[in-house]
Amino acid sequence: MDHIAISPSDQVFVLTGAGISAESGLPTFRDSDGLWAGYRIEDVCTPDAWRRDPAEVWRFYSSRREAAQKAQPNPAHLALAELESQLPEQFFLCTQNVDDLHERAGSVNLLHMHGELAKSRCERECGRAPVEDRAVYRSLDEVPRCACGGRLRPHIVFFGETPLEMDRLQDKIAETTLMVVVGTSGSVYPAAGFVHRGRQRGARTVYVGPEEPLNASGFTHVVKGKAGEVLPGLFQVETAAEN
Ligand code: OAD
Questions:
Q1: What is the pTM of this model?
Q2: Is 34 touching ligand 1 by the criterion CB < 6 Å?
Q3: Residue from 50, 65, 185 to probe ligand 1 pocket by mutation (most atoms less than 8 Å from CB)
Q4: Domains assigned to the chain
Q5: Which of 9, 27, 91, 151 sits in a 20 to 30 Å window from 76, CA-based?
Q6: φ and ψ at 124, to 5 degrees?
Q7: Is 196 a residue of the active site?
């Protein structure tokens, strides 16, 4: 597939995963050198882990913060921001990533379904909104308390918790005619099921990444390659006159 043609009547929904940030130097989760090769999910990314050992959870996410702050957006992030600038009314980006490389590349209409590294929120779900927080905590004593007295936790969706803004995402998927999924292994639901819902509604569904994802059967096209090499030349935006 040389190009994906986008017409004025298309509604584009993009889903990204850790693979899009790999060329920025951030490790994925399930590749052989990925984060889950060095850490157990149950130790750092579950409500139980937080209850048992919040210091260990903060150590993990503090080191993720440090890495993300040093990383820069790569050509794949920039290509999506450029596409959005050409189609501001027709474009929506959902990322499973908790880094802010999409924003820093210029993406605007964007939802972080698994949370954001650069924010923290009250562990008690007291109703206060997440706060900007890029601090790197070396010990629990350094972690601030919420006004209600609860400890701040990372604004991250742990395994077993519900991803953010699912209603809005379902609405966006319902109206999409072109779904482009980039750099995600298709192993974590509900995100891995978005392609099937898009396909049921008749959307074109394209995957971009170096290997087939686990949910490959849902895609009408699989474009094999690194996101930073494939995405910059992939989209061909048609104007009304060409259509
Ligand atoms: P995974 O680590 O499961 O998958 C990363 C995917 O990126 C793999 O399929 C790789 O083939 C692909 N990949 C590697 N390099 C790439 C490149 N240069 N360009 C494009 N693709 C590349 O990561 P996710 O699918 O994002 O959740 O993981 C989903 C969720 O599981 C994460 O959001 C996280 C994790 O546990 C939570 O922490 C809640």
A1: 0.97
A2: yes
A3: 185
A4: 1-25+73-114+163-243 (3.40.50.1220), 27-70+116-156 (3.30.1600.10)
A5: 9
A6: -90, 5
A7: no
